[in-house]
Amino acid sequence: MSFNDNARLDSSRVRDRRGKGKGLAVGGGLGGGLILILSLIFGPEVVDGLGITDGADSTAGSGSSQSISECLDGADANERLDCRIVGTAESLDSFWQPALAAEGLTYTEPGVTLFTGQTSTGCGSATAAVGPFYCPADEQTYYDTAFFDELVAQYGASGGPLAQEYVVAHEFGHHIQNLTGVLGASARDPQGAESAAVRTELQADCYAGMWAGAAASVPAPGSSEPFLAELTPADVQDALSAASAIGDDRIQSMATGQVNPESWTHGSGDQRQAWFMQGYENSDGGIGACDTFSAANLDSPGA
């Protein structure tokens, strides 16, 4: 999905902490990629409880030499990942404010923070190993931009723009769940193929699809032009590629050669794709179209 070149960006929408943190060396001989896999399968809380991030400090990456203040317009978003995250966040704000107002709800903007290595959050200290995440305690979304390279190199996802934007939209989906009061369900039923955790993640995928289906028709604030241009079939395939790449079944198979649905926390790749498309095809139907908690069959949304 390409940005309209003349769309104006507000770089203050995103906090840039890249290159300002310290990375943690990983104890126990486990590499960061494996910790990311474990986090995606079991959740960062479980991985933190294993103590595998303890160890001597090491120097984090140097971060970007480019300033996020240089993100001025859609043309910059088409060229640079950090600018793309700025524009995606603004597009998501433009979609969710009226979408929630139609439900009688008030939208508040979640924070967006870029970091490298490690960062402090309202949910505690976090490392890049957990991947992008949302912290309900401070209502912030966090992204180590190196994750987007790993998504392609390690997990085989497309490197297209909508694959990256889908990740941001998914984390915003968790913020919507926080505002609607359902986010906490995953903590009470944290794993299993039919668990509340899986239903929570699939709903966030569906919310990402809702935004993607409507983004090209929602004007930017103070403008008649949307941030984003019309999607192409290739754009949609980029998002579906990312959704499939981080399905529990695929990650488990890569990590262990086996698939165990009883330990799922995010759903299979096929389920993640299906719920993204459920939102995409019902972007003007209200958030009820993404009610994974009432779904009798998570494999077939709307059935």
TrEMBL record:
<feature type="transmembrane region" description="Helical">
    <location>
        <begin position="21"/>
        <end position="42"/>
    </location>
</feature>
<dbReference type="Pfam" id="PF04228">
    <property type="entry name" value="Zn_peptidase"/>
</dbReference>
<keyword id="KW-0472">Membrane</keyword>
<dbReference type="InterPro" id="IPR007343">
    <property type="entry name" value="Uncharacterised_pept_Zn_put"/>
</dbReference>
<protein>
    <submittedName>
        <fullName>Neutral zinc metallopeptidase</fullName>
    </submittedName>
</protein>
<keyword id="KW-1133">Transmembrane helix</keyword>
<keyword id="KW-0812">Transmembrane</keyword>
<feature type="region of interest" description="Disordered">
    <location>
        <begin position="1"/>
        <end position="22"/>
    </location>
</feature>
